[in-house]
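input
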Amino acid sequence: MYTIISATNRPGSHTEKVAKYYRKILIEKGIDAKIFSLKKLNVLEMNPDFSKTQNEFLIPAQKIIFIMPEYNGSFPGVLKTMIDISDVKKAWWYKKALLVGVSTGRAGNLRGMDQITGVLNHMKMLVHPNKLPISVIDKIMEEDGTINNKSTLQAIHQQIDEFINF
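output
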């Protein structure tokens, strides 16, 4: 099973739309994928709701796709906090990760993807080397979540195909 983490708690984000787009492509390729949204998730403590969510989305997943917006040159604190309260051995160890950065700027969260790579490697995760920065998302994505940039679409499909075979 694949889990796609929409790594922000902001409602109506571009990140959530990109996560849905990745899920659509995976389903078209015959891959079971669930979206794990950090929206409305209490990550300040281990609680029954988080435990249930962890058991549904993280523990059974063998491959995890992180769709991460750029927050102040890094990845969102809510993602780090969620990782910190999780059962690291069960949720993360020896799983494969794919990183997608999302930003309205020109770097596509390159720094955030580099920073979380160190965190994931520390948790014994294998990070796919094709980390995709999606820049100027506000200009290449329609309101309905459709991406209208041909080279970005090609890069997404190539990244997904590589991850399926990873």
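quick obs: Helices lie at 14-28, 48-58, 77-85, 88-91, 110-122, 137-140, 150-164.
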